[in-house]
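To the team - zinc ion complex, inputs and output below.
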Amino acid sequence: MLDPANFGTPLAMLQIPAKSIQRVQEKLADPDCAVTYYAQDCRHFSDLRKAVSADDWALARRSTVDVGYICRRCNIVYPGRAACSAHQDAQCYRDGGAGNAIVKLEQLQYDCAACRSKASTIAEFKAHCAGDSHRKAAAAWARAHAAASSQPPATATHRSETTHVAANALPTTSAPANPDTRPRQPSGDDPAVDPVV
Ligand SMILES: [Zn+2]
Ligand SMILES: [Zn+2]
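Output:
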């Protein structure tokens, strides 16, 4: 069957910087490496601290999106772990020994907690912070967090949910969604409030 999810792409042909490809290839040679990542601008998340204001740095979150799964022997990248594993069983590790021969590849992203938006590069994050909508959202975020400082920030519980979604699958909405994270009380009588007798 012609399922595109079953086809791999050679690592060297991924649309990522040559320097990143080189770094990933070095990681593939490390038998203890099971997950590696790259940034579109070949920078590190900590580099963002010096690039933006302290207020904007406070809103910055590190996240990653899954890029694929690399066969350590032939350096072909598959979108899913199962496809990579099937390839190894059929070709590269037909005689077994695949063990830890898959390396997961992730792309680093710079998230804005106030806007729930993602940037692929530090320059992109900086440009985002200069926008009017970000300034308004950042001010509202600061007010909300000052008012609710005794409660854990709502963004903390949502951060991990966005971690494993492909970047191109995300809608580019900048509306700060505010889902109700608290358990809903049933309407009507609540037996929990009856006094104990
Ligand atoms: Zn292979
Ligand atoms: Zn923002």
